[in-house]
Amino acid sequence: MDRKFWLLRGLRFFFFAALFLVVIGFVTQALWNWLMPELFHLPAISLPQTYGLLLLSRILFGFKPGGRSAAWARKRREWQQRMAGRMEHLSPEAREKFRQQMRSRCAGWGRAAEQPTESTVQQPA
Q1: CA dist., res. 86 & res. 24, Å (int)
Q2: What is the tens place of the pLDDT at every residue in 62-117?
Q3: CA 93, CA 97: separation in Å to the nearest integer?
Q4: What are the DSSP calls for 76-105, one per residue?
Q5: Quick count: other Cβ atoms within 10 Å of Cβ 79?
Q6: Average pLDDT, whole number, for the chain?
Q7: Are 50 and 25 in contact (CB under 8 A)?
Q8: For the chain, how long is the longest CA-to-CA vector?
Q9: pLDDT of 124 over the 60 cut
Q10: Can you tell me the distance from the alpha carbon of 34 to that of 28, in angstroms, rounded to the nearest whole number?
């Protein structure tokens, strides 16, 4: 029973993996043959050429699952942990001073800059 279960599970995996590869190949071929000859005057390609193109793109652009976005998210998380560790060792006054400095430096970045109040505006003499 256990051996039969694993055999069927393995066969099902290979069936769906093969089906996935066939569908990806046909979709890529259809998109290429629809767009590339019209836009860039390139020739239409066959299914084996499509698989070669897919393999070449994986070789050139990497085999990492998740791509660059996963690496970026990991680096961002590491940076946040480093900053939290540094902030943890600061006194509450130093932490507030750091926050105020960062707000003043980054005020116009990504949101509207804060309008200066009358007390911060210097009057000409």
Answers
A1: 47
A2: 766 655 667 788 898 999 999 888 888 888 899 899 889 888 888 776 655 455 55
A3: 6
A4: HHHHHHHHHHHHHTS-HHHHHHHHHHHHHH
A5: 10
A6: 84
A7: yes
A8: 94
A9: no
A10: 10
Six token digits for residue 21: 């590869």
End-to-end CA distance of the chain: 94
DSSP state of 110: S
- Report the alpha-carbon angle 91-98-84, nearest 5: 70
Residue 32 and residue 107: Cα distance in Å, rounded? Answer: 46
| Amino acid symbol at 64 | K
Distance in angstroms (rounded) separating the CA atoms of residues 17 and 9: 12
* Burial zone of 29 (CB within 10 Å; 0-12 exposed, 13-18 middle, 19+ buried): buried
pLDDT at 110: 60
Position 121: which residue type? Answer: V
- C-alpha 21/C-alpha 73 separation (Å) is 29
